Amino acid sequence: MKIMVAVKRVVDYAVKIRVKPDKTGVVTQNVKMSMNPFCEIALEEALRIRESGLASEVVAVSIGPSQCVETLRTGLAMGANRGIHVESTASLYPLSVAKIFRKLVEIEKPDLLILGKQAIDDDCNQTGQMIAGLLNWPQGTFASKVVLDKEKQVATVDREVDDGIETVCLNLPAVITTDLRLNQPRYATLPNIMKAKSKPIKKFTPEELNVEIISDLEIVQVTEPPKRKAGVIVSSVDELIDKLKNEANVI
Amino acid sequence: MTKHNSRATIGFLLRSFTYCPSNPSLLPSATSSSRFTSAFDEKHKLLQRDIVHGDHQVLSFFNPFRYFVETKQWGVGIQRKCYGSVAGLVQRNPRFSKLNDDDVRYFEGILGDKNVVQDEDKLVTSNTDWMHKYNGSSKLLLQPRTTEQVSQILKYCNSRCLAVVPQGGNTGLVGGSVPVFDEVIISLSSMNKIISFDKVSGVLVCEAGCILESIMSFLDNEGFVMPLDLGAKGSCQIGGNVSTNAGGLRLVRYGSLHGNILGIEAVLANGTVLDMLKTVRKDNTGYDLKHLFIGSEGSLGIVTKVSILTPPKLSSVNVAFLACKDYSSCQKLLQEAKRKLGEILSAFEFLDGQSMNLVLNHLEGARNPIPTSPHNFYVLIETTGSDDTSDKQKLEAFLLGSMENDLISDGVLAQDINQASSFWLLREGIPEALMRAGAVYKYDLSIPLEHMYNLVEEMRSKLGNTANVIGYGHLGDGNLHLNVSTPHYDDDKILSQIEPFVYEWTSKHLGSISAEHGLGLMKANKIFYSKSRETVQLMASIKNLMDPNHILNPYKVLPHSLTS
Ligand SMILES: Cc1cc2nc3c(=O)[nH]c(=O)nc-3n(C[C@H](O)[C@H](O)[C@H](O)COP(=O)(O)OP(=O)(O)OC[C@H]3O[C@@H](n4cnc5c(N)ncnc54)[C@H](O)[C@@H]3O)c2cc1C
């Protein structure tokens, strides 16, 4: 069984985001970029499935500018068998990414596709669902537990939903997107970083895959969230109650 | 800036610890006379040297052991203190006045009622040090907001002969920041303004009470970094850092504060304000007196403002966490790192397997990045540079080469900032973990690298399984933190085995008994292990000249005979 995993290069989770002065986006120059944390979890899950003997190969895919190769190297150092880089400098929205994945699935024929539930840069939470739609595959989103039955070709997925856990059974091939509690990703060890250097990364362009990158979305403006107002120290319980009643209007 | 986020958490932990109700096991055990006998017999030979006072008066050291033999009891009515250290007994200097209502009224006149704190609950925090080991009994905390107010306070205290203790973030580890008896606490916390920042030169001017972490985030926004970083950043103040000449995690890269502090404004005991707040890098006009305030732990004056040279923030930071099979490999790895990573190396820290176990057992969120098998030593290497691709290549090549040469047995390289922070937590969280494990005897030593870890091993075999001996520290600076962790303080069984052994051993190997924490109260009487008699004499003369009534931070830094 072959598992394909999407890994996106994003502004590091711990970086303080700055909006560009012209409000067209956020500053990414000289900013630390890393693998999207949900993609890390997706890759970890794929590796665990392979290590348990249920899969034989994990292929990591990253779409974007040339530096995505670094993200792929991280994935390979974590343990992916090989990488695929679809190079594009255009702005990529979920639908374009989903179309690229549909093509890659036709080429690679994986039995399972695992993605993060969302990327922390645009927070779209759409790509996994769109791929499942385009491929007409079943989907298990927001996964907090994944159990595979190789013989029955079924994946049982616990989903984190508002009022608890929902368990779904998917016939393979299927799409799974990962939530935060699914697992704790491993670190890249030195021996594995060394091995990763000789693992292959195949390159494609969207044109080679016959995907036209267009979007009917336009970003109008990016702004910072309003600054939190400084708090006040109240001197008595009465004052607190007064403020809660008359200023905050919560009681 | 990489580690800001999760490391801010450590600051938060620190703060929350400071305010949590004290754990009785962390308090020093009650005074007992027996603890002096062994140590003082051996040691007073070394300490019993006469000292020439500034005015040519000959003083000899107070010897509590002899005092005990002569009087057969610890005096009743005279205030004495004994801390978990064979340094022994301190007596309140009777020359100091006792605080009265007029004094309080005078201070209220200068500062306003709100900044004159007499509330006992509030004073508990300021009377207790971070380790909950040293407790003073001050009745008054003053919170000046300007240099002028500090000057007025000191002028008055000097004229009244009221002893004072300057207090920053109170994270000091040698009992220097809390009163010993009833000294008035002068807190710099309200002097926390950033005065100016020059983007061209990178020179920052600020008040002494600025919290290190606040300065760091201010600078981060400007695209600069502090040349100083330490685990206590969330609470410690720049004035405290300067006064202790704090070393920390980046000294290997940026050097000591003696190089990075360009100017200081300080107030002398008599209220004189010394304006040495230069912002230029070079200034050879006469004696460079600001250096006297760097590392003198509040014994010569109160630092009110500082100017600091800050380097620009570089975008590429990489952190590796490595396992080594023995100490000699760590040492060789350091030599190699200095050669091969030279210009990008920004931290080289180590911890032994025992430290790692301690952190994993006592610190929430700590995760072993190399869990495959236990290792004897761990090293954290950080690089900071301007080009991520080439820096990473360089670091990887170095690490892989070191692995081939068998200097490293295993290791991980952080792939994002979160991972880097989790590696740092293992090193920076050790003091916190030690506090949670119970009582701790702390030693902060400079020792020539070659011998450094022998001390830990000797200490371990001396104590057997009565205590957990751990070694960690700033290997890149030859700075060992030797810590002896036990469930409870037990000076008879444990401390007598450690002291004076540790000091003698360090002295014999030409090290320093205080690499970066200072002497404070804990090691005031131990100065001779690291400084010659003549040197201490000159220090005493300087102290007499600058603070003739010895009101500034008494019983600390210099041997007690000089301040009583
Ligand atoms: C978790 C942890 C990690 C630490 N790591 C390190 C480390 O890596 N390197 C290191 O060097 N230290 C370290 N320390 C020790 C401590 O944080 C430093 O000594 C720090 O510089 C003290 O700053 P502070 O503001 O807390 O000063 P305080 O503890 O309040 O005072 C320290 C001394 O300076 C004097 N003082 C304070 N402010 C002034 C002032 N404005 N004018 C005159 N005198 C003043 C006090 O009287 C006292 O003698 C650590 C402590 C903790 C708790």
TrEMBL record, chain A:
Identify the keywords attached in UniProt to this record, alphabetized.
Electron transport, Mitochondrion, Transport
Concerning Pfam families, the annotation shows: ETF (PF01012)
Keyword set includes Mitochondrion: yes
Main localization category? mitochondrion
InterPro entries xref list: ET-Flavoprotein_bsu_CS (IPR000049), ETF_a/b_N (IPR014730), ETF_b (IPR012255), ETF_beta_N (IPR033948), Rossmann-like_a/b/a_fold (IPR014729)
Chain ranges passing through the membrane: none
Which family is it part of?
Belongs to the ETF beta-subunit/FixA family.
Q: What is this protein called?
A: Electron transfer flavoprotein subunit beta
Question: Which source organism does the UniProt entry give?
Answer: Sphenostylis stenocarpa
Automatic annotation (TrEMBL), chain B:
- Reaction catalysed by this enzyme: (R)-2-hydroxyglutarate + A = 2-oxoglutarate + AH2
Question: Which GO molecular function entries does the Swiss-Prot or TrEMBL record give?
Answer: (R)-2-hydroxyglutarate dehydrogenase activity; (S)-2-hydroxyglutarate dehydrogenase activity; FAD binding
- Give the matching InterPro entries: FAD-bd_oxidored_4_C, FAD-bd_PCMH, FAD-bd_PCMH-like_sf, FAD-bd_PCMH_sub1, FAD-bd_PCMH_sub2, FAD-linked_Oxase-like_C, FAD-oxidored/transferase_4, Oxid_FAD_bind_N
Cofactor requirements of the protein: FAD
GO BP term, example = photorespiration
Q: What class of enzyme is it?
A: oxidoreductase
What Gene3D superfamilies is this protein classified in?
Answer: 3.30.465.10, 3.30.70.2190, 3.30.70.2740, Uridine Diphospho-n-acetylenolpyruvylglucosamine Reductase, domain 2, Vanillyl-alcohol Oxidase, Chain A, domain 4
Q: Which GO terms describe its cellular component?
A: mitochondrion
Task: State the superkingdom.
Answer: Eukaryota
Supply the PROSITE patterns for this chain: FAD_PCMH
Q: Which UniProt keywords apply?
A: FAD, Flavoprotein, Oxidoreductase
Residue ranges of every copy of the FAD-binding PCMH-type domain listed in the record = 134-313
Q: What is its EC number?
A: 1.1.99.39
Which family is this protein grouped under? Belongs to the FAD-binding oxidoreductase/transferase type 4 family.
Q: What is this protein called?
A: D-2-hydroxyglutarate dehydrogenase
Provenance organism: Sphenostylis stenocarpa
